[in-house]
From TrEMBL:
Organism: Oceanithermus desulfurans
NCBIfam families per the UniProt record, alphabetical: UDG_fam4
Molecular function GO labels: DNA-directed DNA polymerase activity
Lineage, highest ranks first: Bacteria, Thermotogati, Deinococcota, Deinococci, Thermales
Keyword Iron found: yes
Pfam families, alphabetized: UDG (PF03167)
Protein name listed in UniProt: Type-4 uracil-DNA glycosylase
E.C. code: 3.2.2.27
Amino acid sequence: MSLEELAAQAAHCTACRLHEGRTHVVFGEGDPDAKLMIVGEGPGADEDAQGRPFVGRAGQLLDRILEAAGIPRSSVYITNIVKCRPPGNRNPLPDESKICSSLWLLKQIELIRPQIIVPLGSVATQFFLGEKLPITKVRGQWFEWNGIQVFPMFHPAYLLRNPSRAPGSPKALTWKDIQTVKQTLD
Ligand code: URA
């Protein structure tokens, strides 16, 4: 099974209620041999309209974060915990995350086998850490998940709401975190 074949299956998914409101399934995109996989929460309005992950304002900020560390977006695989947009951009519900990730995300990870997974924000981080911990406590730290290094970072949407670049600010910490990721990629 290739990523394309998996994406073709996901395009028809009706396994949870989120399929009812979607325009597109946002499966994920990027290098199938990526060493770095970035996992967000779920598609927003722009992603739902275009069928691509992280293409709205948060996505443009993610592009700048990657660029700052010299990581080409095309070298990364980018996806989300849930592949269909939750109504009104609410957080995915636990059953939605569970159903969707077991059908698609876990298989994507198995096919890509990245060296590093960066979950963005608390919903994605909770998936890999197995418990709800404040993102402020766990970002910028290394965890291990099924033999893969996991390094949580702030979600870019959170950075859009907290634009200060002062030392110690979420943005300043994120710019430091992405350098750590870059230095750890072999
Ligand atoms: N926010 C996410 O978590 N994922 C996207 O794809 C876009 C915005």
